[in-house]
Each structure stands twice: as C-alpha cells, then as structure tokens.
Design brief:
With 209 residues, this protein is mainly α. It has one domain. Helix content is 85%, strand content 0%. It has 10 helices and no strands. It has helices at residues 4-19, 23-35, 37-60, 62-66, 70-96, 99-108, 114-126, 129-142, 149-173, 177-206. Helix 3 runs antiparallel to helix 9 (149-173). The longest helix has 30 residues, at 177-206. It is globular and about 60 Å long. It starts with a helix and ends with a helix. The mean pLDDT is 78.
C-alpha cells in the first residue's frame, strides 16, 4: 500500500529543491527574458532530461554506489565546477557591456539551434552534483526497506510531472511581455546576479574536492 502522507512529504521536498533559485532555474529565466519562450523551453527540456536521468539512477540504486566512491563524485564536482565557472565569467562579461554594444554583438552572432540549447540545458544539469544528491535524498526519503516497485514508479512519475511544471513554468512566466520589459531595464543587474550565483556555486563545488 502506498503511503499518501509520505508521498506528499517527498513531493514537497522535491518542489522546494527544484524550484529554489539555482544555476538551472536562473539560466532558464535569463534565456526566457532575453531570447524568448521557445529557446527557454528548449533549454528547460535539456534540464528536465538531465533530471530524469538522475532520477532514474537514483531509483535503480546506481547513484547510491556513486556516493560511496569519493573519486568518482570528486571528478563530477570538478567538471561541474569548471562549467559553472565558465557560465559565471560569461554572465559577468555580459553584465559589463552596454546595451548598445550587446545589441551589436547579438546582431553579429549566428542563431543558436534548438538542439544546441537543449544540449546546454542537459549538460548544465548532468554536471551539477546537487541534482544527483537531491535525487538521492528524495528517493531515500520516499523509499523504505519494504518499498514496492509501484511506490518507486509513483515517486518517479510524480517528480517527473513536477519537474516539467517547474522548469517549463519558469520558461513561460519569464518570457511574458512584462518580464521582458523588466529584463531590458535590469539586464545588467540580472546578468551580474547570474555571475554571482554561478561563481558561488563553482567555488563551493571546487573547494570541496
């Protein structure tokens, strides 16, 4: 029998973890406000795919094995930290340039394909150890020693729905006209905030190896 109260606890914990501000969410917000809804949804699709991947590993117990090997997890943290540091530098440079110069640069840059945006979102989530550890915590919270395969399936399905709702919700809400106008007025501050978030996350990951 499925414990409804336990499921509610699991889903609440997942919502708090997935919806809280972080590199993936803030990147989706930035793309939505700067490039529009479709690019943000493509980026979100990559993030969601990465979330499904970690969720599947957590459900099958592979992630539990990874947590026992500091070297494997350490390599993942280095890769994630370097990538987040790259995003921090990129956002910081964007925050320093003027709107006029940015418009000229954007006009000269070739359009990014949907698959490239999807790849970026996927890579960002796959190289984020917090996503893996979050899923480990979620599955540990939701599964007891006598948990059935039905319980595992329900937790995965529920978290999958929540993942789509949260990440796509960010893409949709922050691509609306009021948000876009607000972004144009506060672009440099937003990019600066992104740089700080990415940089802090990168330092945190790299300093723990």
């Amino acid at each position: 029998m499925i414990d409804i109260h336990n499921l509610l606890l699991v889903f609440t914990a997942y919502i708090i973890g997935a919806a809280s501000p972080g590199p993936s969410n803030m990147r989706i917000m930035g793309v939505a406000m700067n490039q529009g809804r479709r690019p943000a949804l493509l980026l979100a699709a990559g993030v969601i795919s990465g979330s499904f991947f970690w969720g599947s590993l957590a459900a099958t117990g592979v992630s539990a094995v990874l947590t026992q090997y500091a070297q494997a997890l350490g390599i993942l943290k280095v890769v994630g930290g370097v990538y987040l540091l790259f995003l921090a530098i990129k956002a910081g440079r964007s925050a320093l340039i003027t709107d006029e110069k940015l418009a000229m640069q954007l006009a000269a840059v070739p359009s990014v394909s949907g698959f490239t945006l999807y790849q970026r979102g996927l890579l960002m989530h796959l190289t984020n150890p917090k996503a893996l550890l979050g899923w480990v915590a979620t599955m540990t919270l939701g599964l007891g020693p006598n948990a059935s395969s039905i319980t595992v399936a329900v937790i995965l399905a529920g978290c999958a729905i929540l993942s789509v709702t949260i990440f796509c919700g960010y893409a949709i809400v922050f691509s609306t006209a009021p948000m876009i106008r607000g972004y144009r007025k506060a672009r440099r501050w937003i990019e600066g905030a992104l740089a700080v978030v990415y940089g802090a996350a990168a330092i945190k990951l790299l300093s723990r190896n």
